[in-house]
Design goal:
The structure holds 3 protein chains of 3 kinds. Chain B is of the alpha/beta class. Chain B contains 10 helices and 12 strands. Chain B is globular and about 70 Å long. The N terminus of chain B is likely disordered. Helices cover 32% and strands 23% of the residues of chain C. In chain C, helix 5 packs across helix 7. The chains are: A alpha+beta, B alpha/beta, C alpha/beta. Chains B and C meet through helix 5, helix 6, helix 7, helix 8 and helix 9 of B and helix 7, helix 8, helix 9, helix 10 and helix 11 of C.
């Protein structure tokens, strides 16, 4: 019955295709990227976010007026909007007609869609600094002929005559940066403390866990109230800005810390960690080379989802007057202008920064979800 | 049908009488895990995972460590490598330069240079390789930790190791996800051999593999042992595999050793009722030989609440009064054949042909 | 165990189950046929990727997307209340419909691999069995509990009254497996599918479970489809064996013939490669060269040809051999024995 079968030669004969070759030498981040790419919504949101962050780098380029400039005469101008290929101009805005109200003596402005004023790309406007390196006065768009009109108000003006669009640009810089920095700080705190808790266990673990529990059981808004009220009133806006960031980070790290701790606890039991220990690897090497990379993609995904939370936190705080205060500009500060129902009824375009918040938060959530699905090793 | 096969294995004719070179000797090893209850985490009892065991392995031989779940074989093997800290007992290891050290007494610093002499092969081919590292990183890591900083040198050595286990050196840049279970197990073996160990603890190395791949892997392990003069501690629950690859076998039950003998002696004529039961339960791949006719009643005892006297007595067909009160001594009944049973001398137990 | 009944209880004809993934189509089961007779223990044996689990899932219509049954029929012959026999094609039923749900548990029951995973940890084992009984029988809870108690006694669970009210995690591995068997048998199914029922338990517990299954099967004359990769267990349990590889049947036959007169090179190679009491210790085992290919890289023609020592170039790599008789009650799909390909055999059947 039994024929003498040849024993297997030890050389493994695997014929692989080119595609398989590519996959087999692909490190994890590449695999995650390939999976992420398939999610169209996430990719589009990602591009949108990149665009947002370009604005963060050079808000002055995208602004049309000086965001601080107040003009008593130009209050509550409605949004002009841009039209294309009208009246002989490539880009143009409708002219503004002002009428002085005989009773209140205030200027009331209306749009005259028939009369159009030319607008061009890369126009000259007010001077601004780029990344603190050099000054320039070139903007993305502006009036073709500066003398023709008072100014170009894409989204109208507010109660002090300031251009809403330009303020939105500068507000974007603040709001998007605060969220990012706060999350980075949270991640550092969360990974550090969560890691210590999970890897070393024992007394350190117990203490850190109790701290996390206490922090999480504190009611957030009163705490914010207390902490921001404790900030000295005479601090310059930038200092307040950083203080807010640090406060947000100190409260926001706990969820991440718990997750990191859980990951460390489960990773400690993995065979490949034991194998490294048996080879004599130092604790440091095991943590940095084996454990941290194992959950890095998950951390990135979770952090991306934490940024919109931070943005909304900052917007809410500043809206209530507890966060960033004027003259600094953020989306929350801009929305403060829209607190008064009369103002909103008269000048609804002041709610535009709300739209910016919605778009940014949605985009971050879609990207974060996409990253999380792509990084999840069990999803395929 | 008895076998009188006294085929010499690797030149060692009688392991015990000529125990000139035991590589490892374990004496009175214990590992207890505390059971903690209550808010203040008070210790209310212990799980006696390993409960006073004694065995030795000769240089160049393969000792099988066999038992069912909860018997303590995995715990014992991890204690030897100091992945777990033993509660008490000695683990005497003969180092390269001929000295005998007690592994249980060494601190981290003293243990570090000895790590390269003892390595482990794991059961799970999917969990034992870091998915984020290339083969070069995985197999080369022990070399790097040892001090081989030159990358070119490491590449050469890794290529040599991969060839040794039957994998193409070009695969060095690939990640584990590109390989099958059997191939991953080979990568794990290559990693274990990187620093030229003398003792290799193989923890169920073929249990998670397909049948046809098991054979390939076992052949590889045998081949490597001959070439590199390795000593294996082969932990497994699969008796057919153990019979095939081991020179001597130790059977454990609920933290204690019940029998140790050469593979031939154990399978031909076991001296402990538990061993006999294990052999009887083994399904034989021959429909004309019906096994499983003798059923072992009850369940495996819990190491947290072991029975009194002999731990096996509640399930033993040959139990007498003495077995319920007095734990049997682990003694040598014929040369090289140890067992812990009060009735070992009088019982005539059936083995496998 | 008389498997000479004229009518098989379950017939699978040319079943194909394919998985439609982004990277391509995995033909997990690619045209298998088998007949299971009442009172028979039908063993399906194979390595990973052979399709045995997918076959089981197809029978119960629980194949998860992106997989689905592409073609083939699964005919179940079941008795009607009036005594006659009806034949229903499970492949044609709505997987989520009421009729299929009646079949599941009522006529075909499953003993899964992991009893821990199969029981809900938040309900007592008793309540789960009673629920199953009440779903398929027209009884009230008290009667269902009595029936559950009887099932527990039948499978040999000590102190059944207490055990009914315990949770699955309170039971030991062996008892949990018995409870699982009790649940599967509670509605007297025609066919019991045992999916690797002893892989996760110890050797001594395995012996107990196998003995129990044999006893129950003899008592109730039900059919068992026993799926495993362990050739030893198959030799002890099965009457009739099917050997699968990469979604196709390589060989089928009575257990004695398969183990003592294997015809297919794969069967032979598999039997040779397992260490047993007959193989010389510490010698190299004969192995099958190469390894199981990735499901996307299925070889054309006979799936085993790249690893076969009897490979005939120009024949085995061109067409898939048909499963045809070779000797009494033994079937093999190999060009060594037949010159016919699967397509030709199919044409002859439909002609």
């Amino acid at each position: 019955m039994a024929e003498a079968l040849p024993t297997a030669s030890t050389a493994e004969l695997t014929q692989t295709s080119k595609a398989e070759d590519r996959v087999s030498v692909a490190p994890n981040w590449k695999l995650v990227w390939w999976r992420f790419r398939k999610n169209k919504l996430a990719v589009i949101s990602g591009i949108l976010l990149i665009f947002f962050y370009i604005i963060v780098l050079v808000p002055g380029f995208f602004a049309t007026q000086d965001p601080e400039k107040t003009t008593a005469r130009l209050l509550f101008i409605p949004p002009q909007g841009i039209g294309f290929f009208l009246d002989g101009h490539f880009m143009s805005v409708p002219a503004l007609e002002g009428q002085r109200d005989p009773v209140t003596l205030r200027m009331k402005w209306t749009i005259d869609p028939e009369d159009r004023i030319g607008v061009r790309l890369f126009a000259k406007g007010f001077e601004y600094e780029v990344l603190g390196l050099f000054k320039t006065d070139v903007h993305l768009f502006g009036l073709s002929d500066p003398g023709q009109a008072d100014g170009f108000y894409l989204l109208g003006t507010d109660r002090l005559g300031r251009d809403v669009w330009s303020r939105l640009m500068y507000g974007t810089r603040t709001s998007m940066t605060v969220g990012l920095i706060a999350v980075i700080l949270s991640v550092v705190l969360g990974v550090l403390l969560g890691g210590v808790s999970g890897y070393f266990g024992g007394v350190a673990d117990m203490i850190i866990q109790r701290v996390i529990e206490i922090l999480q059981s504190l009611p957030t808004i009163p705490i914010w109230l207390a902490m921001t009220a404790a900030l000295p009133r005479q601090w310059p806006p930038t200092k307040v800005f950083f203080a807010i960031t640090i406060i947000l980070a100190f409260i926001g790290w706990t969820t991440l810390g718990r997750e990191v701790r859980g990951r460390f606890l489960s990773l400690r039991e993995e065979d490949f960690v034991l194998a490294a220990e048996l080879s004599g690897a130092s604790r440091f090497r095991i943590i940095t080379r084996h454990m941290v990379p194992a959950f890095m993609s998950h951390i990135i995904a979770t952090s991306t989802l934490a940024i919109p939370v931070m943005i909304i936190n900052e917007t809410s705080l500043s809206f209530l007057g507890l966060g960033i205060r004027p003259p600094a500009i953020s989306w929350g500060v801009l929305l403060q202008e829209a607190q008064n129902i009369q103002t909103v009824a008269q000048a609804s375009w002041l709610l535009m920064p709300g739209l910016a918040v919605i778009i940014a938060v949605l985009a971050f959530n879609l990207v974060g979800d996409g990253l999380r699905d792509a990084a999840d090793p069990y999803s395929h | 049908m008895t076998t009188t096969n006294s085929q010499p294995v690797l030149g060692i004719k009688h392991p015990v009488l000529e125990a000139k070179h035991p590589l490892l000797e374990v004496r009175d090893l214990r590992k207890y895990f505390p059971i903690r209850k209550g808010f203040l985490r008070k210790t209310v009892g212990h799980v006696r995972a390993v409960d006073d065991i004694n065995f030795f392995i000769n240089e160049g031989e393969t000792l099988g460590l066999v038992g069912e779940s909860g018997c303590g074989k995995t715990t014992a093997s991890r204690c030897i490598l100091r992945a777990l800290e033993p509660t008490s007992g000695q683990m005497l290891f003969r180092t390269e330069d001929g000295n005998v050290v007690d592994l249980a007494l060494l601190n981290r610093e003293q243990l570090k240079p000895l790590r390269s002499q003892m390595q482990m092969i794991f059961q799970d081919p999917y969990g034992s390789l870091n998915p984020r590292m290339t083969l070069f990183d995985i197999v080369g890591e022990p070399l790097l930790i040892e001090g081989m900083r030159n990358r070119r040198q490491r590449e050469e050595r890794v290529a040599e190791l991969l060839r040794l286990v039957g994998l193409r050196p070009e695969f060095m840049q690939r990640f584990p996800h590109a390989f099958s279970g059997g191939q991953r197990q080979r990568i794990g073996i290559a990693r274990a051999l990187a620093v030229n160990p003398r003792l290799v603890v193989a923890d169920e190395p073929v249990s998670a593999l397909d049948v046809s791949v098991q054979a390939q892997t076992l052949n590889l392990l045998l081949d490597l042992q001959k070439r590199l003069h390795l000593t294996y501690l082969f932990v497994s629950h699969n008796l057919s595999v153990v019979k095939h690859i081991c020179d001597r076998v130790t059977v454990m039950y609920v933290g204690k050793i019940v029998e140790t003998a050469t593979s031939q002696a154990l399978f031909a004529r076991p001296r402990h009722p538990y061993t006999a039961a294990l052999l009887a339960a083994l399904p034989v791949a021959d429909p004309r030989v019906k096994t499983g006719n003798v059923e072992l009643p009850g369940e495996v005892a819990s190491p947290a609440h072991p029975p009194s006297g002999c731990y096996f007595h509640p399930r033993c067909t040959y139990c007498i009064d003495r077995c319920t009160t007095e734990a049997p001594a682990y003694r040598e009944i014929t040369p090289g054949h140890f067992t812990a049973c009060h009735r070992a001398d009088e019982l005539d137990l059936a083995g496998m042909a | 165990m008389n498997h000479q009944q004229p009518e098989p209880l379950l017939t699978i004809r040319d079943l194909k189950v394919h998985f439609f993934m982004d990277e391509g189509v995995v033909r997990a089961v690619d045209g298998i046929s088998l007949d299971v007779y009442p009172g028979q223990v039908f063993g399906i044996v194979g390595e990973s990727g052979c399709g045995k689990s997918v076959t089981m899932k197809a029978l119960l219509r629980i194949v998860e997307t992106p997989g689905r049954i592409v073609s083939g029929e699964m005919l179940l012959r079941r008795p009607r209340p009036d005594g006659t026999v009806e034949v229903v094609d499970l492949a044609k039923l709505d997987a989520r419909g009421a009729e299929m749900r009646e079949v599941r548990g009522g006529q075909i029951a499953l003993i899964p691999q992991e009893p821990m995973a199969a029981f809900s940890p938040v309900h007592t084992v008793g309540s789960q069995i009673i629920e199953a009984i009440m779903l398929h029988r027209d009884v009230n809870e008290r009667e269902a509990r009595k029936m559950a108690l009887q099932q527990f006694r039948d499978v040999g669970i000590p102190a059944p009254e207490q055990r009914l009210d315990e949770y699955s995690w309170q039971l030991s591995g062996g008892l949990r497996q018995r409870a699982m068997i009790a649940m599967a048998l509670s509605c007297n199914p025609l066919v019991l599918i045992a999916d690797e029922p002893t892989t996760a338990v110890d050797v001594t517990t395995q012996a107990q479970v196998l003995r129990l299954l044999r006893r129950l099967q003899e008592e109730r004359n039900s059919a068992i489809i026993f799926i495993t990769h362990d050739l030893g267990v198959i030799a002890q349990m099965a009457d009739y064996v099917t050997v699968m590889y990469l979604g196709l049947v390589m060989e089928q036959g009575p257990v004695d013939k398969i183990f003592h007169e294997p015809k297919h090179p794969y069967t032979r190679a598999l039997l040779e490669s397992i260490p047993s009491i007959h193989t010389a210790p510490r010698q190299d085992l004969p192995t099958i060269s190469g390894s199981i290919p990735h499901p996307f890289n299925r070889p054309a023609g006979c799936p085993f040809y790249p690893r076969c020592t009897k490979y005939m170039p120009g024949v085995c790599d061109q067409q898939t051999p048909a499963l045809l008789p070779v000797g009494e009650k033994q079937l093999v799909s190999c060009f060594l024995y037949h010159g016919q390909s699967q397509e030709v055999a199919n044409m002859e059947v439909t002609a």
